[in-house]
Amino acid sequence: MVSATHTANDDASRNVQVFAFEPGQVVQELGWDEDTDEALRSAIEAATGSELVDEEYDDVADAALVWWRADDGDVTDLTDQLVDAQTVLDDGARVWLLTPKPGRDGHVVPSDIAEAATTAGLHATSSLSVAPDWSATKLDTRGRGR
Fold this sequence. Notes:
- By secondary structure, the protein is of the alpha/beta class.
- The protein has a single domain, classed as 3-Layer(aba) Sandwich (Rossmann fold).
- The chain has four helices and five strands.
- Helix 1 (4-15) crosses helix 2 and helix 3 (75-85) packs across helix 4 (110-119).
C-alpha cells in the first residue's frame, strides 16, 4: 500500500517540472506560512539542489515564489509584494505567484492577479495547478508591449 505522503511527494515532484528549475538555481520565497505546500517546497529544493532563500536574501536570485492569500491584503499590497519579489532577481528571471485554488480559503480572483501583475511591470502568462490546494501563475517581464 502506498502512503498518502509518498503519493503527495510523487505528485509534487511531477508538478515542480512546470517551473523548469535547474540544479544550482537560487529560488527566493516570499509569503511562506504554515499553510504552504511542504511537498511542493521540498520538490523545488530537490530540483535546484539547494534550500529556498527567504525575504532577507540580498544576492541575485534566479526565480521568486510568492505565496499569496486573499487575506494577505488587497491588490495594492499584492502589487507591492510582486515589486519586492523582483528586487534581487536576475535579468529575465521569472516570478511565480502561488495562490489558493478556487473554492479554497484565501482564493485570489484572477482579475486581482492580473491588475497587480500589470502594475508591478509583469505579465500573467498562465495559471497551473501545482499542488492539491495551490495554483501557480507564471509572471513574466517579457511580452508586455511587444
